[in-house]
Structure formats: C-alpha cells, structure tokens
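Components:
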Amino acid sequence: MLQKWRDKCAVFGIWNDPEAARMTYLGLYAQQHRGQESAGIVTLDQGKHLFHKGMGLVGDIFQAEDLERLTGNKAIGHTRYSTAGGSTDLNIQPLTAGLLTGPIAVAHNGNLINAEPVRMELQKGGAIFSGTNDTENLLHLLARNPEKDIIEGLKQAALQMDGAYSFVLLTHDRLIAMRDPLGFRPLVLGKRRNPVQTDGQRSEFAYVVASETCAFDLIGADYLREIQPGEIWWVDAQGEHSEFLPTQEKRLAKCVFEHVYFARPDSRVFGLSVYESRKRMGEILAQESPAEADIVVPVPDSGVPAAIGYSRESGIPFELGIIRNHYIGRTFIQPSQSIRSFGVKIKLNPQMEVLKNKKVVVIDDSLVRGTTSQKIIQLIRQAGAKEVHFRIASPPTTGPCYYGVDTPQKDQLIAAHQSVEKIGKYIGADSLAYLTVEGMMKAVQGSKHEFCAACFDGKYPTPLYSHSENS
Amino acid sequence: MLQKWRDKCAVFGIWNDPEAARMTYLGLYAQQHRGQESAGIVTLDQGKHLFHKGMGLVGDIFQAEDLERLTGNKAIGHTRYSTAGGSTDLNIQPLTAGLLTGPIAVAHNGNLINAEPVRMELQKGGAIFSGTNDTENLLHLLARNPEKDIIEGLKQAALQMDGAYSFVLLTHDRLIAMRDPLGFRPLVLGKRRNPVQTDGQRSEFAYVVASETCAFDLIGADYLREIQPGEIWWVDAQGEHSEFLPTQEKRLAKCVFEHVYFARPDSRVFGLSVYESRKRMGEILAQESPAEADIVVPVPDSGVPAAIGYSRESGIPFELGIIRNHYIGRTFIQPSQSIRSFGVKIKLNPQMEVLKNKKVVVIDDSLVRGTTSQKIIQLIRQAGAKEVHFRIASPPTTGPCYYGVDTPQKDQLIAAHQSVEKIGKYIGADSLAYLTVEGMMKAVQGSKHEFCAACFDGKYPTPLYSHSENS
Amino acid sequence: MLQKWRDKCAVFGIWNDPEAARMTYLGLYAQQHRGQESAGIVTLDQGKHLFHKGMGLVGDIFQAEDLERLTGNKAIGHTRYSTAGGSTDLNIQPLTAGLLTGPIAVAHNGNLINAEPVRMELQKGGAIFSGTNDTENLLHLLARNPEKDIIEGLKQAALQMDGAYSFVLLTHDRLIAMRDPLGFRPLVLGKRRNPVQTDGQRSEFAYVVASETCAFDLIGADYLREIQPGEIWWVDAQGEHSEFLPTQEKRLAKCVFEHVYFARPDSRVFGLSVYESRKRMGEILAQESPAEADIVVPVPDSGVPAAIGYSRESGIPFELGIIRNHYIGRTFIQPSQSIRSFGVKIKLNPQMEVLKNKKVVVIDDSLVRGTTSQKIIQLIRQAGAKEVHFRIASPPTTGPCYYGVDTPQKDQLIAAHQSVEKIGKYIGADSLAYLTVEGMMKAVQGSKHEFCAACFDGKYPTPLYSHSENS
Amino acid sequence: MLQKWRDKCAVFGIWNDPEAARMTYLGLYAQQHRGQESAGIVTLDQGKHLFHKGMGLVGDIFQAEDLERLTGNKAIGHTRYSTAGGSTDLNIQPLTAGLLTGPIAVAHNGNLINAEPVRMELQKGGAIFSGTNDTENLLHLLARNPEKDIIEGLKQAALQMDGAYSFVLLTHDRLIAMRDPLGFRPLVLGKRRNPVQTDGQRSEFAYVVASETCAFDLIGADYLREIQPGEIWWVDAQGEHSEFLPTQEKRLAKCVFEHVYFARPDSRVFGLSVYESRKRMGEILAQESPAEADIVVPVPDSGVPAAIGYSRESGIPFELGIIRNHYIGRTFIQPSQSIRSFGVKIKLNPQMEVLKNKKVVVIDDSLVRGTTSQKIIQLIRQAGAKEVHFRIASPPTTGPCYYGVDTPQKDQLIAAHQSVEKIGKYIGADSLAYLTVEGMMKAVQGSKHEFCAACFDGKYPTPLYSHSENS
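Structure:
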C-alpha cells in the first residue's frame, strides 16, 4: 500500500572486502525500504575513518567518485528515516567521533527509551552533544572510560541503555555487531566469498552484518545466522568472537510488525521467510473471516502475499484488480482543483473490466487512519463492484511504537478509538474484518513471549519513559 | 520484466480546462511508461503558445512554477523515448513553429517511414530543418500552403506521409487529433467535467485526447471512444468536428505489441482491456503449452497478468517466487568486481523459501536476446528449484518494428536466428514454449487483417524505405 | 558602474585549431561582458556539426566533458543577452539548420531592423520559424536558393537585411565572417600559431575571428585587422578569401557606445584602444567642464579610465573613494526591511576616510535613469563629502538603440525629458556636466560620418521599421 | 592580485534585530573575502538554536527559504577558509553543542596554537570530538564546569588557550564577543538602529559585532569601537557588559598583514583605514625605493591603493596598464595545450597601447613564490614595455603564520631562501625593491610592540607548539 508505516533504520557492516564501500552501498540500496531520509557510509583505511553522508536516497547521495574516495576494506553504513533532528545533518548516521583510543563509528536501528535521563546525566559530567540523537549516548558512555577495552565498555554501556538497539560499530581495529537482550530489531550475520585477495593476506571471505537478508542476496553473500538477542559479536585481525551481555533476559520482544509490514517479502527475519508469513496471515484470515465473493483483490504491493494466501485458502480467484503505477517519481505536483481521491489514484488505479459487477474481497496488510481505505473503496465502487469486503491481514492497530518504528500518534489510529463495525462503516465497506492477535502469532509461528505486539495489544515489554523519538 | 522494449511516445491534449497545463502534466505522468527520455507541454493563451520542455522524467522536468507559467486553458503534451537526435534538445516534442497563420505545435506517436525522401524534397524547395525529427516534415508540409485551411492542409500532408502517426496538434484556435489510416498507434478521446467555469463562458466539460485511457483515469475524465484510423478530429470555439482522410484503407494494422507489452495493464487499448488480454494470453499459453509443475511464477511486473491466466487455466498455484525491488533509483553504481547476475539481481530477487525443491513454470511476456532469461533461470536454480519450465506469453520475436517501437536490431533478436529448442538450451530451461500467433490473435479477439504483428510474422503492412528511426 | 547598458552579443570563430572547442570557450569567456544570458558552441567534425548550448554564464554552461564531446578543429561560438525569446532555448545561438547542401551554423551580433516584414514574406513562401530570432531570417534567405554557392547566397541575402550584423558562419567546408556595410558592430581577424599540427596537414596557424581583441589576447592569438564594413571574409581548404557586398556605402556607422561603455577597456575596437579613448573622454571632459575640487573619484569600475584622464588633465588627485565589492555572487537575497540605498551599497562602498570634508568630482561613464547616481551621491554625502560635482564622460543619452544594444525605453532615459540642470537637482549634485558630442568624437578620433551616435544625437543612420528587438 | 594569501575566517553577531538572520547573511556576504570555503548562521529563537551551514560561497549556501526558517532576533555567523577538515561538513562553523545549561554556538577567527595537547587532555577526561577543529576545544573546556556561569567559564577556558582568537558566541541568553589578550585578529562593535520594534519591547537598536567594519557599512550600522584585546563583551536582557581576561598582556600582536593584504580596503581595522594604510605604504615605498620611469602600474586589484600612493609621491603618472577581468567564474576549464602564462592571463591582461615603449613601475602588495610575478613581467614585456621596475608594498615574506592565516610553507616562500637581488633576476625585473619593516610600521602608524609581523621578521609573539593548522 501507500507508505503508511515507516521503519526507521537499516544497518550494514562488512569486514575484509576489497570493495567494502561499494558492497555497503549495495547493502543499503537493498534495504532502502527501511529508511529514505538520509544515509551514510564510513570506511576504515589504515586506522583512519573516511565517510560520506547525505540527505535523500542512497542512489542520490553516493556518486561513483564518493565511493572511490571511501577506500579501505572495512565499512559500515546506515540508512534512516527520522522525524527527529529536523533539517540538520548532524544526526545522519553512522555517527563518528574521536576517542583517545582512536576513531569510532556507530550505526543504530532501534530506539533507546531512556535516552533523555541518561543524556542529562552525561551533560552534568561535562559531555557536550552535537546532535539530538539517542545514539550519541552510546559514544559518550564509551568515552567515559577511555582506557577500557571497547567490548568491556559496551557491556557497561548496555547497563544504561533501555529499549531497542541493533548496533553496528567500526573502530580502528574491529567490526562489532550488538543486539539488545529483548531482540526487538533484526540483525543478521553472513559471509561473502572474496573474488580477489585483500591486503596480500589470505582472507577467503568477508564477514557481513545487516538488518535484513535481502542485503546479502544482492551482494551474493551467504546467510549464516542471526546475531542473538543480547549478543556482542565482533571480528578483528584474529578472527570472529562472540560474547553475551550480562543483562540477559528470559523472554524476548521481537517486533511482529517486521513480518506484517516493514521487512521486504524476500527477506528472512527472525529466521522466517517474510513472504511465507504474510501468505499464512492471509490464509488464517480466510479461515477466521471468510467472505462470499467472486474475486480476491490485493491493495498492491504490500497486500499481495496475504491476498494470495486468502485466495488459496478460500478458493476465490485472485485478480490484480488494482494496478499500481510504479513510474511515480519522488515529487509530484498536485492539481489545484479537486480530483476525487487524487492522492490514491496517482498510485493506484482500480480496473473497471475486472471489478464491474463483482463481489470483491480486498486485502490490505494493515489500516492506520482509514482515510486511504475509504478512498480505495470509493474507487472500487466507481469501477462497478457490487460488494466490497475489506480484510486486514493484521489486528487493529491501537497504540504507538516506542522501539524504533515511526507510528502515528494514538489519536490518529482509528482502531484506538473505534469499533471494527464503526470503522467498516467509515471506510464504506460492506464488511470489515481484521486478523486476530492469535492468528498473527500462529502465522509467525511464535508466541506472545517471543514477540512484541504492543502496537496491537498494548503490552509494552519495557517500562516507558518520556517518549523521545529517535533512530 | 526489466525494460526490454521501448515504445517511443505518448501524446496528450486538452481543450477548455482551467488547469490545462496541470492536467497535461498528469496525463503525461500517467503515460510515463511510453517514453522516459524527454517531455514537453505547450499551452495556448490568448492566441500565443507557451511551452516548457526538458530531458528526463516528467516529474523532474516540470516544477510547480513551470506549470504556473504555462497559462491558458488549452494544452498538448508529449513524452518520448528516442535513439535519434542524440544530445540535442531540438527534437523534444511538442515541436513548435510560427506559420503565417499563427503558432502551431505538434506531438507525434509513431514513425513516418518515408521521412527521408520527403525531407530532401522539402529542402530542395527551400525548407530548413532545425532537428532530425520525422515530425518536422508535417510542419513543413503544412507551411507550404500557408493560406490554406489547416484541416485541408493536413489532408494534403497525409498524402505524403507513410507509416504510423497519432498526432495531436494545437493551433491558435483548434485542438486537433489525427490518426493514420492503418491505425498503428492508439489514440483515445474523452471528456472531463470541469469543476469550475472557464473564461466566463459556459463550458461544462473539457475535451481530452491521449494515447492510453490510463491518462483519463488519473485526471477523472470519462472515456468516450477511439479516434478512428484515418480520422481527423478537432475542437474549436464552435464545438467538435470529425472528418476522414481521403486515403482510407480497408484493412488495419493496429500494433499487437501494445497488448503484449507496451500499454499499461489498466489501459483500454483498441477498445480492449490490456490486463484481460494478457490474462487470456496466459490462459491460451497454458492450453497450448502445458507443463507439469508445482507453482507458476511470473517474472514481475510485466509477466504477472499472464501468470495469473496460466495458473487459473492450469490449476497450478500462483506464487510471487521472484520479488521485484521497486526502490531502485534511476542511477546505480555497479560494483567493479563481478557479482553473478548482478544486473538482474538489483531488480529481481528469487525466493529460496518459495522455490526450493519445486518444479516451476516461469511466465514472461516476451524474450529478446535471452541473456536476462538465462540469468533469471540461474538465480531460480540457485534458489533450489528442481525444474524450470519457461513460458513466453507471445510468439518468437523475429523482426524489428519500423512504426514507432524501439526494437533491437534483427541480429540481436535471438528468435530471428535460433530454433525454440536451441533458445531453450541457451537460457538453460528444462522446457521452453512460446504462444502461437494464432493464440495471440485469439487473446486480442482480432484477426491478422486488423492487427500488425510484423515483429512476430514478418508481414509488414506497408512498403519499407530506408529505415530512418524516429519518434 | 552597475550594469546599466547591455550589449547583446559576442561572436567567435576558429579554423584549424586542434583545440577548437576549448579556444572558442576561452574566446567566449573573454567576451562574457557582451552577453550573460546564454551561450553556445558549434564545432565541425568530418562534415558534421556538434553543438552544446545553454542558459547562463559560459563557465557554467560548459563542463570539461561537453568540450571533449565537441570534437573537430573548426568551431564558432556565441554569447548573448536578449530581452526577446523569453524562457525558450530555441533562440540560443549559434543557430543551426540542415540545408540541402549540408549543415550550417550562424552566430550574430547586431540587429536586423527589417526582420519583421522579411519574416512575413518568408512565411508566405512556406518558411516555418522555430524561434523568434531575427537571425533565423538569414538561414531562410540562404535556404531559398539551395543550389547556389553560399557566398553568392550571402550577397543576395544582404540585399534583404537592413541594420547591424557581424555574422560568423560555419558550413560543412567554410568559416565565414561578414559585416554589414555601415559597420555598426566590431569584428576582428587574427591568427593563432598552432603548437601542434592538425590533421597531419601542414597548417602552421589557425584563423580566428571575434567581436573584440581581448578574446585574442587570452588565447595568445595575434590581431591582424578588422573585418571591413561590407566585407565577406572566409577560409576553406584552399586558404583565405575576401569579397565585398555589392551594397557598399560611403559613410559608416560604427557604434560609439562600444568605446563609451560596452567594450572591455583592454580591447582594441575599430582600430582604437578603448582604455585610451575613455581616458581622453575624461581629459576632454575636464577641459570642457572643470570643477574646483580636492579629489577625483570614479564610480568603479567603468568610470575609472575617464577619472584617470580627468585627474591628469585637471591636476586634481585621483582617489578610489568608492570601493567596489567584487565578491558579489549572481544572486542575492534582499533584506525585507529597508536599508537605505541598499541596491547600490551591496556593490559600492564610499569611504569616509577618503571623502570626509572633501570637495569631490565624481566621474561616471554615462547616466540612464538617474536613480543610481542619486543613491551614490547620497552615500558620498553621508560619508562626509562637502561638495559633489558629478561629471559624465559621455553626452546625455536621449534615445534608444535599434542596432543591437539593450537600451531602456525612451521614457526611462532621464535626459530625453529633462534639462541637465534638472537632472543635476534630481540626483542631488552640486553641479552636473556631460561630455559634448564633439568632445566624444574627438576622443574616438573620428567624425559623425564614421560613427553612429544616434542614442546621443537622434540621428539614426538607417530608416526605422517597427522596432523588433533582437540579437 | 590573484588570491595568494587566504585569511581563514570572518565572524559576525547581532542581538535584537527583527531580521537577525538576513543581517547576518549580509554581514557574511560583505566579509566573503575572508573565507570562501564554507559558511553558517545560527539564530536563537525562544531559547532554541536554529542553523543552516554549507560548503561554498555565502550567496550559494543560503536561499531565501533558509533565511526564513532561521527565525529569532539574535544570530551569529561565520565564513571560513580552511585546509583542515577535508571533505567533511563537521568543521563548518558556527559549531553548536548542547550543554546542561542549554545550547551554545561559537564562531572563531584565529588559531589556537596549543590545540593538540589540550585536545588529548580533554579526551583523557572522557571528551569525544566530532570534528578536527581547534574551536571544539572551547566547547569542551566550557562543558567541564557545567554549573559555572558562562563568563567565568570563558575566563577559565582562556587560561588553556594560547594563540589567536576572536570569538563570537551565542548562548540561550547572551551574545558574547571575546578577543585574545594579544589582539591578533580584529573584532569590532557597532549599533544598528532598528527600523521596527522587536518583541514588543522598546529596543531602539541592535548590537552588532564583526571582523571588519565593511560588514557594518552594508547593513547600515554605526561603528562604535573595537572589542579590546583581552576583553569579554556581552549583551543580554539587561544590556551590555564588559570584563577583561585575567591574563592581560602589556604588549600586543595585531596582525599587520590585515593592512597589507587581507582586509577590504574600505574597512577600518585596528582603528585605521586600510585604504589609507596601503596608500601610505606606496608613498613610503616611493621614498625608500624610487625608480626612473614613465608610468606607475598596479597589479590589480590589491596593488591599486599602493600604486596611487607611489604615483602621488613620485609624481609619475598612474595608469591601469593591466586590466583585470572580473567576469571570471568560479570554475574554469584549462586548455590542454599550452598557452603561455595562461593562468595569469585569464585574470590579467596587460595593455599594449599603455605599456609600449614605456619604462614601467609595477606595484604589487606582496610576493609569495615569484612565479606569478614572473609571468606578469613577461606579459608586460610582450606588450612592449622598455623597462620593468617591480616594487612590493610590503617587506619580504620569510615565514609562515600560525595565528590564523593560510600561508604557504616556508620552503615555498621565495624570500625565505633568496636574496632580493636573486628574486629580481628570477622574476625578470630590471629592478626589484620591497618596503622595509620600518616603513610598513610607519604606514600603519604603529610599533613592533603593537603589531605581529612574524611572517616578515620571524619574531613570533608566542611560543610555538607542533603547528596544527586550523580555523
């Protein structure tokens, strides 16, 4: 569907690849869906950091000459969407800093919910902050004990960081990946066979870390495993290492929304194919909320896998009754006079030949304010549909996320205030049904003790502070 | 699929709309798939032409201030892909000129196959050519009889123009649409209800013309009918008019490739839904060339409708086994070291979870050189597929087009030189089959006397001159 | 001074230089003061034209890769300021066209005063005009006799062109320079020794033509002579040639304003140093209109030579009492609240330390509306000057130019409507005096029969048509 | 002359002006000659900082919408040239940081010569550095005592800063200007009458601080006085205040090069008109090193005032024998084949008509490597001069500057290694002479105890550390 939820970051790291900057560029390109506001790459060459950052899309920020300037066979990168930070470039990640021990760079996916109180504490100790980014806290926490080994420093810092963090760090001699004990955000490890040797050393492959496996597919790397919740993994001249934070938790809080909407369907997230999860959501939805209809039509593109599942389970034929225009550019000049439902039409065009005189099941992945759904249903009816049965392949969204997803505020979430019946009337559907939380858990083959579904069920897995938004 | 064929133009025109320039902008935006190299808009205000043109995509060429400068409630526009003309802006359409009777602007979809000899004739008569565009011939042919009525002039000019032309013209007092007698390229007429009155006159609606109906859908216009082959339609202060060229033909030569690949699936072309044609091509393909398989997988996006048809007819489940990445920007920095099949991977990612251990029918709309298909099949096999049965929802492409489609030269069309069996081996498929010409004609519900299928059957509907490429 | 008059073009041509495009670029760069709106270069390589044009300054329009693309050892170029043509690129020169005999390109400095009637005549004969440029007439006049030799064609065309023209043309086999019989605009011929051989042929030098000699200085070419009024000079594979138009005139009409304001002071125009002419204008002004004062202060930069002359003749010390800020960029954001005389101050800063308690003679080259002079005098008084005696090193400007200079309309020329005394009061000077026409003629060492001074004395050397502005 | 020395910064600040951002923009625009690499503006609105920074010229970095976004009636700005910092934006000033007490922004002209050791000390204490800028030290020194009053903090910080600093700071409630005890760099205070009232309060004027008075001239502010060496001046809601650093020195070290080359001639620096200083340098040079000649010719623009002085004292006529082309853009494509002395010619064109057969005194402000002077003399001789007597209006430059001027390294300064006689031969002059140090001091009406002339006499007024370049 139209972009309704925004994940706020993707991270990437690579160790020992002769084209480290280009591979990072590709790794960010493949993960562009996780953040379109800004991006950056930091490489390490002879103990020094080189970087290039900018506002916009990966493909626009980096020119060939920028990547050539980023020499060195180690690199990390980040792409980001953020409401915080405004028009300033200071918050573009990876953040870099000079510590006594050398340069350090960090890329962060997630959100530290106790960023504000820790920041004040640090300022009392003489710290100055250049940006408004929660991630800057980590750098200051590390700087406070400059003589300490960095892995020790990270363990100590973890004691002061609550919330979601999948970090990738690059120091003068190490690539480090670290995931919070509850495992909110994904973080995966892979290997990439080097076509040529690096540094004259015999290094047969490069290590890679990323938020999603689709980054590995593009650069031809093999998926090894997830970085575990609470794990600190690193690689240095001696090889790879792994330790665990002292703050290990029993339960987990993997973000179920990664499977519902964020992650690319061709990624494997928390060990599971996203496309298959979504198809199962559609199948279970068909079981839970069947409809008598002639055709199943997805709201493209995000509703397609669930619609395939719904169609297969119900036996009702699948049709691309709404065509999505992919030639849409980044900017678009609106007509000043009103064209009905214009904002939706510029992307989605329901087809009269398919919809006319049909009873239609429309499948969407989720529903935020209801305004877009309302327009889609209007357009489908204008195209001649007799009945429109709206089915949402996730439960009603009733609360915001504080762990790194850009959700609308609670008062804008229609399901936080309205019954399903009223929502159905508001959007003009002949019937409306959502997937249940249980159905969703079944689809991701997990339990409520492994997944965070707070935006659906209100059960936030951590205490909440004042909600500073970030990363 | 990746963009393998390029149609070379879209045209648009509007008469009497208070937002003529913006509607034209939207009309071009919706037809961007027909030409991504350059675009232009000409408006008419108080007898004078205003225009803005540029290289690139519609959304990049026009800024809000450009559209505001283009005052007037009449306009035409053009978007174009062309191999001719090189780095010069002189060929960007609409072309404009000053005749004795006033300004004239023309937008052209199609190709005049006798452009060269007519051009030389005109130069002998003292004509100077500013560009290298076949369309410029029309302007000179009109200028030779400056005192004559423009409609008469067009009829006379038509006697000297062989080939394909769907013209939209804007003079100081008329909007004109004109289609060659064989009807190669589409051209449709519609009406748009004006939300506000124009010029103080009572004009309840605006007339619109376009190459495809998807342009009407976006601006909320109603489709009326096709401009007929050989018809000159125009609107002026007195209302609309229609005449026919004296050169009427019995047979027609509507381009079947519009249904196979070019047109947007949500357009109605030659009176027929493109999506439905493609689905029928898939269905007939399933009848003609069945395969024993577990799943039907389209090469997205252009193979999707035929794959739905194939799946429905064969009963084999439809799966999005290859995910297309739509976050691809316009430019892309290649890695300098080799990544296998990189050029395909950046757009298409086959999914291991879907394909593993499966017998797969892969559906594509057409096949040019075979190199991309080869890479796709490699990736599908790497993802674990047991068998790959390739099915093409059109016949083997054996010859170039001279009527306005940008085809590779004959020596690059693999089917011009190789048997189906050899092509199948080359691309590495377990089996390969194409739709027959008869099957294709059935799918578009037409006969060989109505459609041009020269690129498939070599039967060119006109004599061929030296093949100057254009428009 | 602030740019008050705009000359409308510079031309350049080069024949047989291994770096023809770069030399043309430099030749335009050196002549940038003659036109800052657009520029273009056309080269000739193997009988074909290559070109690059754009809006803006020469240094912005051409990138290194553009010049590399412009291969060939023959080239012409043009830089232009124009009020005509509006936002369209169609009028950017050199104009190019395809004639039966091959490609032709033309660059024009001057203005054809009978452009309109000739254009209508041509249109009646079937000509179409792509732009609104008077120069296009020449191309059509040549195209009317396509079989004729181009030199003959030019002679015939000259019979239909009244007004000012210094043309440089590049055909498939010749570089041609041609100047109107009255010799309004300058055009000079030079030679440039080639550091390397071209084409394997023994060509020891390249021919160059330009509007001003400063273009020769930059590229290290030697000045040979002026192209004579009424001369057609050309060079081809056989060498150089010269003929004269049949329409030779007895009297001449060289533009005196070139010496007053337009030309660079380091150019030699009509065989005379511009710097020396301006100094003499200052000297004669001092004789004609002395002033009792402590210091002579120029309005920089254009008033400097005349101020040196005035100072030397009068014995009053020369002081840079007003400093010009040369770091001014092209655009400038105005403060929204008023700063007194801001528009002048951003460029000119009078110095209190120099001006305080002084009687000051201020020298400017000319005076248009008087508003800027008024502000300058205010600033000088604020800086503490006791008396301000304004002296203009040219006569009162009373009429517009129709021969290629961009003058304000008559109603904006203060001297067309006010006595010198009243102007003096309006600008707030203690005294005001202009140079006489006789003094000016003495300074350029010529007579009224050789120079056009129509903007000062109203004696237009040709009949006037409806005044189409151009080139 | 061509830009041979680069001053490295200009600062600006304004308190209580309704157009604070625009005035700062103008203040930087007027001081653009002091730094062309990057610029930034920070405003204060309701206790919060807003900023915009960028690489390039002031006129390119700021668009009207940027200035509109920078609300608030307090602002500081900075423009900078720097060899340090490379391609990163992190060093663009004003630097901003979040302290416990609120936001702080600082703009710095000068160079802290002990930046490196202090930086290491701070890192040991847990500080992280985002850039490579010496100015960042000040922020960390202030952050170390977060509870302390900022003025106290600045006094303490001053104890740890050796070298040159003219700081302008903007906190949440104060505009502060602070100059090092030796007074290396200029810093001036002014008042600007407000055309409209601010904040509803009765504030009749705005306070302004700047590096040079030319910034005041442009915005219509009145010069009040210099900020004194060792002074901390600030303004807050209660009005203006002044205190002195405890580290007061007896002697001073005002940079004499500001008068020789850096400052704009229309500025008043250290209480003295720069234009008048330069004229006096020329006069004294004429007394010290007369020449028998026909004309005095400046190397424009920077040699002009001294040439006027030399001419007046010697009685030899002043002539603009070399014309400077001010239409030079920022970039310039070099010809690949050699044009003799091209790099000089693109800006300077000696005039044959003025120089032919003349004995010429050429006046330049200073001489670095001698290569440019050599080319100028070649060009002058080519233009026909009989004799060339080169006179430099400053002493031989023998050492680099460590206090904020971008000087070439010692081995590139020809006078550090060659006698005047040998330099004269190298540049090809008939005679060469420099101004003496005593003559220069006389011209600036000061003594060696007030001015730093270390680049001329090697007497550095502070101990030298490892020479980290900055600011």
